Amino acid sequence: MIEKEKFHVLNYIKKEEYTASMGGMRYMLKKKDCEEGAKLETVIWPEPYCYARTPEEKKQRMEFEFTAQGVMEAADWLNEQYTAQKDLWELSKKM
């Protein structure tokens, strides 16, 4: 699970995509420029492949405000998805 107290990635995401994984779930946070301003796009997908090699239909996306609060909300969403889809992540680790 992501420990929100230690999840300070906003300054990194301002310049680069942030990718990581936990227990079979891979995830990416990146800045997405929109007409109404920047958003924080958060994407999850099952292992074993990287983002570029994973089919789009296996990816799940959510957008948040591009702020420190948005990063905390993204962390909550990631933790929720990790728990809710635990069977999928466990299965992907066996592939």
Structural class: alpha+beta
Shape: globular
Question: Mind summarizing the main beta sheet?
Answer: 4 strands, antiparallel
Gap between N and C termini: 22 Å
**Unreliable segments of 5+ consecutive residues:** none
* Share of residues in strands: 25-35%
Domain module count: 1
Order of helices and strands: HEEEEHH
Rg for CA atoms: 13 Å
Q: Count all strands and give the number.
A: 4
Number of helices: 3
Strand order of the largest sheet: 1-2-3-4
Mean pLDDT: 94
**Fraction in helix:** 25-40%
Describe what you observe in this structure.
The protein has 95 residues and is an alpha+beta fold. The protein has one domain (7-89). Helices cover 31% and strands 33% of the residues. The chain is built from three helices and four strands, in the order H-E-E-E-E-H-H. It has a four-stranded antiparallel beta sheet with strand order 1-2-3-4. The chain starts with 9 loop residues before the first helix and ends with a helix.
Short description:
This protein is an alpha+beta fold and 95 residues long.
Quickly list its features:
95 residues, alpha+beta, four-stranded antiparallel β-sheet, 33% strand
Secondary-structure topology with pairs:
Layout: H1 10-13, E1 18-22, E2 25-34, E3 37-46, E4 60-65, H2 68-84, H3 86-93
Antiparallel strand pairs: 1-2, 2-3, 3-4
